[in-house]
Design a protein that fits this description.
- 53% of the residues are buried.
- A hairpin with a 5-residue loop joins strand 8 (143-147) and strand 9.
- The protein is built from 21 helices and 17 strands.
- The protein is of the alpha+beta class.
- Helix content is 38%, strand content 17%.
- Helix 3 crosses helix 4 and helix 9 (305-324) packs parallel to helix 12.
Length: 529
């Protein structure tokens, strides 16, 4: 994971620019570089993953272009073959290929050719314009803003890098590029052109094949790789697939839980034993949770309740990994629920409603689960890779008959489970285990501790008067008011970065609840066991 800053303006001196870039340094602690190209200032904080030599350092230059890219281009070898006669590569980095692709095909076609997770900014010296783009899911973060005096455009990996430079700051929309004048949609991952109604066997075979390919792509790195293993279905599948793809190689897996009633630790240990991984467990306490809260909110750049809850354990886990290992790359299990369903989507009234909700969740991933994974991992100088967000996999699953993905089987995510059943990927009890939300599964006491802390800090009257402070997405509980107050300390007036609280669909019967945790749903059942 890396961080960059690019400003299409001479408005700021180098010291001001470097101070802003420094806010990204955790994303890329290995090396920092700043360059000026005409009126454009570029800064890059590198975490060396591909081509560990100095040749892999950015910004890249060539063909009258200057490029910074935080990305992994999974099909870069094929793309390099395509342009090998047009460009003299200076590195074996995957990202350098964007320059000759841009020159040969232009911005629109180039973005559509990438099988990748990326955020990039490129200055075209011939056209005298800055262009930029972001991957369709929004796995890699990017914000843009307009400079305080001249109103010229600037881009940063995180919003905090732009806070001292820009008054107006916005998330760069996933699946879009900026062509120097306007933002253009080049791919909406939730929208498929044709729905498929395969047999059950065909559907599960396709799910398995595409996910295996998604994991396989993400194993290529010049730096050491580790795996987050919660003991839940999704992270366990990622680990099991990687284990099968690399027979004889012992994976390094990591889990975290509260010191009181950690649900997932025992399941993570069961999976680790089954796969024969080098497994490490970390324990966190109430003091750890509360002590990390402000740092986590600053890191996340959000006020959303469930994102913050789920991030605390993940942030502390990644912090421990960074402090105690030499790992640089982490595979994780995010982005499955948005396609296969949450506990609350059991209440979807019909297939059309299920598909519509899934599309909404996929489009909003960059604000919630993807944001959490990126910030928690990258803030600890690690790179996160998300196989369930593989573009081919997402397109396949989103094109499946939504009725097949609904819970007609008294078992959520049944298609995904059955795709790997009977093939020695995981023990049956893990494969069929009921889902528990990560913020609950690390131990119910985590959420309880946060609520108790907020209860002690705020009164019911504070919540009743919250609309006087925050008209936009007014906090509605003491906990949400706590998070919003901390957010506003760091990012005053920037709440609109997030569209809404992540909550179940309140229009559905059984889902009109006042807390995002699946624990409040009547169908939670065995999930917390």
């Amino acid at each position: 994971m890396c961080g960059f800053l690019a400003v299409d303006s001479k408005e700021f001196d180098l010291t001001t620019f470097c101070d802003a870039l420094e806010k990204n340094v955790d994303r890329g602690p290995d090396m920092t570089e700043t360059v000026e190209e005409d009126a454009v200032m570029f800064g890059f904080n590198r975490l060396a993953i591909m081509d560990l030599s100095d040749d892999g350092m950015q910004p890249f230059k060539g063909e009258d272009c200057t490029l910074v890219c935080n990305g992994e281009i999974y099909n870069f070898l094929q793309l390099k073959e395509n342009v090998k006669d047009d460009f003299s590569f200076q590195s074996s980095s995957d990202c350098e290929v964007l320059i000759p692709l841009y020159r040969k095909y232009g911005l629109d076609t180039m973005c559509k050719m990438l099988d990748a997770e990326f955020a990039f900014v490129l200055y075209d010296k011939v056209a005298k314009k800055v262009v930029a783009g972001r991957d369709p899911i929004g796995i890699r973060p990017m914000f843009y803003g307009y400079t305080k005096e001249k109103g010229e455009i600037a881009f940063g990996s995180t919003a905090k890098t732009l806070m001292d430079l820009c008054d107006q700051i916005f998330p760069f929309p996933p699946g879009h590029y900026y062509d120097g004048e306007k933002f253009v949609t080049y791919r909406d991952p939730a929208m498929v052109t044709r729905m498929h109604t395969p047999s059950f066997e065909e559907a599960t075979t396709g799910i398995r094949d595409y996910l295996v390919k998604g994991v396989e792509k993400r194993l290529h790195a010049d730096a050491p790789v580790g795996y987050l293993l919660s003991g839940g279905l999704d992270s366990s599948l990622v680990c099991s697939i990687a284990s099968k793809l690399m027979p004889g190689k012992k994976l390094r897996t990591f889990a975290i839980g509260m010191d009181r009633n950690p649900i997932d630790l025992k399941y993570a240990r069961e999976v680790a034993d089954y796969l024969g991984t080098d497994h490490t467990e970390f324990i966190m306490t109430r003091d750890d949770v509360l002590g990390a809260l402000r740092k986590v909110i600053y890191t996340l750049e959000t006020w959303d309740i469930t994102t913050i809850r789920a991030s605390i354990g993940m942030y502390l886990l990644c912090k421990k990994i960074h402090e105690t290992t030499d790992l640089k790359v982490i595979l994780t299990g995010e982005c499955s629920d948005e396609m296969f369903g949450y506990k609350y989507t059991d209440y979807a009234p019909n297939a059309e409603a299920f598909q519509s909700e899934s599309m909404k969740r996929v489009r909003e991933l960059y604000m919630y689960d993807v944001l959490r994974a990126d910030r928690c991992i990258s803030a600890n100088s690690l790179e996160g890779r998300v196989p369930f967000a593989d573009l081919d996999f997402v397109e396949y699953v989103m094109s499946l008959d939504p009725d097949m993905k609904m819970n007609h089987y008294d078992k959520g995510k049944y298609l995904l489970r059955m795709a790997f059943a009977g093939q020695d990927y995981l023990p049956d009890d893990i494969l069929m285990r009921e889902k528990a939300a990560f913020s609950d599964a690390v131990g119910h006491s985590l959420v309880d501790d946060l609520k108790e802390y907020a209860d002690a800090k705020y009164t019911d009257e504070d919540v009743a008067k919250a609309s006087e402070k925050y008209a936009y997405k007014t906090p509605f509980t003491k906990e949400s008011l706590l998070y919003r107050d901390i957010f506003e300390e760091f990012f005053p007036g920037k709440a609109e970065w997030i569209k809404d609280y992540w909550m179940p669909n309140s229009d559905w019967e059984g889902c009109d609840v006042d807390d995002p945790s699946a624990r409040v749903l009547s169908n939670y059942g065995d999930s917390g066991k």
